[in-house]
Amino acid sequence: MSFDVIVVGEGIAGLAAARDCARAGLRTGTVEQMMFGGLVTSINELIDWPGEGGEACSGSDLATQWITEAADAGVESLGGCATGIEADSAGVLLHTDAGSHRARCVIVASGASRRPLGVAGEDAYVDRGLSHCADCDGPLVKGADVVVVGGGDSALQEAAVLAHYARTVHVVHRGTTFRARPAVQAVFDQAFAGREGALSIRWQSTVTAIEGEDGIEAVQVTGPGGTARLQARAVYPCVGLVPNSGWTGLPVDAAGAILVDDRLATSMPGVHAIGAVRAGYGGRLVDAIADAAIAARFVKESLEC
Q1: Cα(14)–Cα(18) distance, rounded to whole angstroms?
Q2: Distance (Å, whole) CA 163 – CA 177
Q3: Pair 292, 13: CB distance under 8 Å
Q4: CA 290 – CA 30 distance, rounded (Å)
Q5: How far apart are CA 107 and CA 29, in angstroms?
Q6: Which of 109, 104, 87, 111 lies closest to 302, judged by CA?
Q7: Burial letters for 33-52: b for 16+ Cβ neighbours within 10 Å, e otherwise?
Q8: N or C: which end of the chain has fewer CB within 10 A?
């Protein structure tokens, strides 16, 4: 079966691109190996993204809305995990673990994965205290001490959620100032306002070890004053993302993000890359949606030539 365009990834960028392409009259399919929505589905309250009536919007609600709009526009979900891509005289051939699909154009929106801390034995604590979703398991650490690693939007959002449950939230950041947007910083500040002892910030520091047998019991944090051992029941790493680009074989930058031009086109004819998988991505939902609109417009224009 041949498509005008196939979008790889059903995160917010991918869903927006697929919807826009389908609404433009293009036969559109999507490929997604995991649950639709991407990383945004782990966030219960999206800052700067109000829902209907001005109420807070959750990531899962937003993803559900967008996949519904995509389906209503005629997008066909193909399933499977993308494993490779190649151009030929008939267009682009997309390979998946469930078979291959031909399209005139492909939009790569495979997103990114959370970067690990790089601590020895880290994988053994996944789902045993090592978490990436404070909204999901915050109640499990009620009254305990926890560690959040990072200084950007994600780290401060996780810490703000954990403020409602944990006794003390230790924020470990390698920098000297936070990188979070002002709106996120404001939510963080409000969450800890007037709560003495609820927040501990360790600047210019990194987590160098995780301890515990049945789960996390403590972490070692190394900073300017040496190494300290903190009692903690959970660790929330928020140290960046790794673009899911390896399967494409396309040229990438030093961070592994796919190189694109101002039309978000890659070096392979007929292939665009958008969202967290591409170099120069802004990082916000509005950036994902803007990427989707740009790619959909240029794909439509190229197919009309």
Answers
A1: 6
A2: 20
A3: yes
A4: 19
A5: 10
A6: 104
A7: beebbbbbbbbbbbbebeee
A8: C
With a cut of 70, say whether residue 295 has pLDDT above it: yes
Q: How crowded is residue 68: how many other Cβ atoms within 10 Å of its Cβ? A: 12
Q: Which amino acid is at 223?
A: G
Domains, the chain, in order of start with CATH, read: 2-113+241-304 (3.50.50.60), 116-237 (3.50.50.60)
| pLDDT at site 41 | 80
* Beta strands, E only, the chain: 2-8, 28-31, 76-77, 82-88, 91-96, 99-108, 112-114, 145-149, 168-172, 199-202, 206-211, 218-223, 226-231, 234-237, 241-243, 271-273
170: phi then psi, degrees, rounded to nearest 5: -95, 120
Q: CA-CA distance, 17 to 292, in Å (whole number)?
A: 4
Between CA 275 and CA 113 the distance in angstroms is 12
Q: Which residues contact 18 (CB under 8 A, 6 or more apart)?
A: 5, 7, 10, 28, 29, 30, 70, 73, 75, 107
* Helix axes 12-23 and 59-72, enclosed angle (nearest 10): 20
Distances (CA, A) of 266 to 182, 193, 278: 33, 47, 9
SS3 for 176-223, per residue?
A: CCCCCCHHHHHHHHHHHCCCCCCEEEECCCEEEEEECCCCCCEEEEEE
Contact indicator for 29, 83 with CB cutoff of 8 Å: no
Q: Cα(133)–Cα(128) distance, rounded to whole angstroms?
A: 13
Eight-state DSSP code of residue 257: P
3-state secondary structure of 301: helix
Structure-block tokens of residue 140 = 């499990």
Count other Cβ atoms within 10 Å, centred on residue 266.
22
- The angle subtended at Cα 197 by Cα 184 and Cα 43, nearest 5°, is 30
- Convert the pLDDT of each residue in 8-61 to its tens digit: 999 999 999 999 999 999 999 999 988 888 888 878 778 766 655 556 688 888
